From TrEMBL:
It comes from Metabacillus fastidiosus. GO terms for molecular function: L-glutamate gamma-semialdehyde dehydrogenase activity. InterPro entries: Ald_DH/histidinol_DH, Ald_DH_C, Ald_DH_CS_CYS, Ald_DH_CS_GLU, Ald_DH_N, Aldehyde_DH_dom, Proline_metab_enzyme, RocA. Keywords: NAD, Oxidoreductase. This is 1-pyrroline-5-carboxylate dehydrogenase. NCBIfam families: D1pyr5carbox2, PRK03137.1. It catalyses: L-glutamate 5-semialdehyde + NAD(+) + H2O = L-glutamate + NADH + 2 H(+). SUPFAM superfamilies: ALDH-like. Belongs to the aldehyde dehydrogenase family. RocA subfamily. It holds the Pfam family Aldedh. Pathway: Amino-acid degradation; L-proline degradation into L-glutamate; L-glutamate from L-proline: step 2/2. The active site is at E286, C320.
């Protein structure tokens, strides 16, 4: 009997014992930094000459690991392995597939701080953010394992006296999993776990800045008893093997989380039917966001200010759900802005191996350049009232930055920056605030701070985002509690961590037998 799902609790780092254990894990991870990781194809470890070098974004001199880089030939080999393994994996008992996820979750739980410490090093996450990433990875495995048990027998349809009808879900085939670096454990593991527990085999291509945590996850799956060939680990260049696998006639589905540009490219390419292809590929694409917190005149202003700060600057604003726009009703605008500036000025930025820093680095040079260029744009479009400076000498550090009095149609209000930058915009009325919040191409998350019931109801109908929150921030969705995914250019609204997510990896079959 499987016990009821409950999300993994977060570690309380104000307790000294937890800090001691985490420090020990950081030391342990330090002892294996610089190791070399192979590709894993059909259970075989393959080393290539060409490597991806994973570097700590907080310290240019610290190499996290070197990882073999798949070529097109190796991607083809992985495809063959996944294609063959599908014939046996699709018939394995769904309960066994779920059990492998439960066991994997248990292994990760036992090594929880080690995984989180690795995320501190490889992604520059602060301790609490790394801990949440690992907890979410555990949650995905626990939740999808249970979801598989819930759907394994299909759904009841009507039968007649001499006719027995069944309706069940079968897996699709080989999936290509393409994951981002910002939740390098949770999203990578969640996308993989969902595909595999549904009976599919996969090629896993993690983001090139965070391939080591994915290599460690492969070890967990192996230890948990996942048969060879079900998950093939093939880090590599997005444009080289990414395009190749997306175009491949044996690819049955692509599960992607990442930027809008790459998501749209995959969606378009996947639509083309290639020689030898006998299906229409399915695409699950979760993309960017331009997420807004609306502050109503009647609300807890202190809560509003704190929600903006934590949603805008947690993990340096590098969350698809991060608050990058604060739309504040004009009568409380000055007060909220002043309080947000005050809290922000006390935030510290540095190498988060040291727990005392609130914010770590941004992920790499390209991110640093992009964010600092938006800060320059912001200086023309608004008033810089906090932060604004960066330093990429040792790591890619950027101060938490606030721009005030930004016009609702400014670039800063419309384009995803994906860094610690938030724009403040004044609204004349609540309707106006909703109008501003909806004025981007995206529709991922949003939050409203309000005590006005009418406004809350109105936002429920009209604030067009996949995840809408009231009287809290707009980040921090929890698996099984807040199924996550967005509207419009935020993607296909494939709600990760939700009750219908697994079905996106399956197809329904009707079976009717006459007696
Ligand atoms: P990215 O699009 O640059 O990369 C994502 C993945 O796509 C990586 O593995 C990359 O190697 C791969 N890739 C690149 N080019 C490819 C190609 N031509 N074909 C196939 N794969 C290719 O995104 P990122 O920088 O890793 O992540 C940040 C973005 O992800 C942000 O836009 C953020 O909003 C979004 N994101 C969305 C969600 C969500 O649930 N909606 C969650 C996390 C991140």
């Amino acid at each position: 009997m499987v016990i009821q799902y409950k999300h993994e609790p977060f570690t309380n780092f104000s307790e000294e014992e937890n800090r001691r254990l985490f420090t020990e894990s950081l030391r342990y991870v330090q002892s294996y930094l610089g190791n070399d990781y192979d590709l894993v194809i059909n259970g075989e470890r393959i080393s290539t000459k060409d490597k991806i070098v994973s570097v700590n974004p907080a310290n240019h001199d610290e190499i996290i690991g070197t990882v073999s880089k798949a070529t097109v030939e190796l991607a083809e080999k992985a495809m063959k392995s996944a294609d063959e393994t599908f014939q046996t994996w699709r018939k394995t008992d769904p309960e066994m597939r779920s059990d492998i996820l439960f066991r994997s979750a248990a292994i990760v739980r036992r090594r929880k701080h080690e995984f989180s410490a690795l995320l501190v090093k490889e992604a520059g996450k602060p301790w609490n953010e790394a801990d949440a990433d690992t907890a979410e990875a555990i949650d995905f495995m626990e939740y999808y394992g249970r979801q598989m048990l819930a759907v394994k027998d299909g759904v009841k349809v009507e039968s007649r006296p001499i006719e027995h009808n069944r309706f069940r879900y079968i897996p699709l085939g080989v999936g290509v999993i393409i994951s981002p670096w910002n939740f390098p454990f949770a999203i990578m593991a969640g996308m993989t776990a969902a595909a595999v527990v549904s009976g599919n085999t996969v090629l896993l291509k993690p983001a090139s800045t965070t391939p080591v945590v994915a290599a460690k996850f492969i070890e967990v799956l192996e230890e948990a008893g996942l048969p060879a060939g079900v998950v093939n680990y093939i880090p590599g260049s997005g444009s080289e093997i990414g395009d190749y696998l997306v175009d491949h006639p044996r690819t049955r589905f692509i599960s992607f989380t990442g930027s809008r540009d790459v998501g749209v490219r995959i969606y378009e390419r996947a639509a083309k039917v290639h020689d030898g292809q006998i299906w229409l590929k399915r695409v699950i694409a979760e993309m960017g966001g331009k997420d807004t917190i609306i502050v109503d005149s009647d609300c807890d202003l202190e809560l509003a200010a704190r929600s903006i700060v934590s949603s805008a600057f947690g993990f340096s604003g590098q969350k698809c759900s991060a608050c990058s726009r604060a739309v504040v009703l004009e009568d409380v605008y000055d007060e909220v802005l002043a309080r947000v500036i005050e809290i922000t000025k006390n935030l510290t930025v540095g190498n988060t191996a040291d727990q005392s820093y609130f914010m770590g680095p941004v992920i790499d040079q390209a991110a640093y350049d992009k964010i600092t260029s938006y800060i320059e744009i912001g200086k023309k479009e608004g008033k810089l009232v906090a932060g604004g400076k960066g330093d990429d000498m040792e790591g890619y550090f950027i101060e938490p930055t606030i721009f005030a009095d930004v016009d609702e149609n400014a670039r800063l209000m419309k384009e995803e920056i994906f860094g610690p930058v938030v724009a403040f915009c004044k609204a004349k009325s609540f309707d106006h605030a909703i109008q501003i919040a909806n004025n981007t191409d995206y529709g991922l998350t949003g939050a409203v701070l309000s005590n006005n019931r009418k406004h809350i109801e109105c936002a429920q109908d009209d604030f067009h985002v996949g995840n809408l929150y009231f009287n809290r921030g707009c980040t921090g969705a929890i698996v099984g509690y807040h199924p996550f995914g967005g509207f419009n250019m935020s993607g296909t609204d494939s709600k990760a961590g939700g009750p219908d997510y697994l079905l996106l990896h399956m197809q329904a079959k009707t079976i009717s037998e006459m007696f």
